[in-house]
Amino acid sequence: MSTLGTSWALDWMNRAAATIAEHRVELITLDRQIGDADHGENLDRGFAAVAPKFEATPPTTVPEVLKGVASTLMSVVGGAAGPLYGTALLRGSKAIGEEVDAAAVVAFLAAALEGVKARGKAEAGEKTMVDALTPALEAAKSVANAGGDAAAAWDAAATAAQEGAEATVPLIATKGRASYLGERAVGHMDPGARSTALILRAAADAAKDA
Ligand code: ADP
Ligand code: MG
Q1: Residue identifier of the C-alpha nearest atom 27 of ligand 1
Q2: At 61, which CATH number?
Q3: Residue 1 pLDDT > 70, yes or no?
Q4: 183, exposed or middle or buried, with CB in 10 Å at 0-12, 13-18, 19+?
Q5: 208 C-alpha vs ligand 1 centroid, how far in Å?
Q6: Which domain holds residue 102?
Q7: Do the domain assignments include residue 92?
Q8: Would residue 187 count as lying in a domain?
Q9: In this structure, is residue 1 part of a structural domain?
């Protein structure tokens, strides 16, 4: 039942940057279908800016890592996703603590979800990243309640987030650009829910190898 520390957090953010770069075109395509085709490009630019910043000023704790990424995303990523991910990570950084066990994963996800809901004025079922974070939080809670460790909590959260992203396909969007499309958003996955699933999978992969 080992906890996760600063090297895990740094690995998470490196892997997040790598997976967002790898899925850049997919995210652009999803956002082209129900938005303005910039989600993959914006997020890729934001995560790519993290490594140089950390080289200049290395963070030394888990909260510092997450806070550093939050401020980078807020200043580099435009559109809706920059402030939303920035808020999620900033709130999460205040909740997670320096040694991450399953309860800390739950605390992070709860704070991140509350941040996105508050900033975006969004609830579950509106075809946004809330629809990935909500089941992720529930899955992490189940693992924590069953006595699982942080790696198991991240793994369950990432799987649930991807299922949540897939479940956005039949939804009509009522927040963000996709809401302008009405019924025409039906049949497409929400790009922000998909990128949330990718970022949580990066946390789980880093935890598995920690
Ligand atoms: P923009 O819509 O400004 O082009 P992005 O394309 O980067 O921004 O991000 C779009 C994603 O942001 C959506 O797929 C959705 O998941 C999320 N999103 C947009 N508006 C909101 C909101 N009000 N609340 C929560 N999430 C939102
Ligand atoms: Mg967009």
Answers
A1: 128
A2: 1.25.40.340
A3: no
A4: exposed
A5: 30
A6: 6-208
A7: yes
A8: yes
A9: no
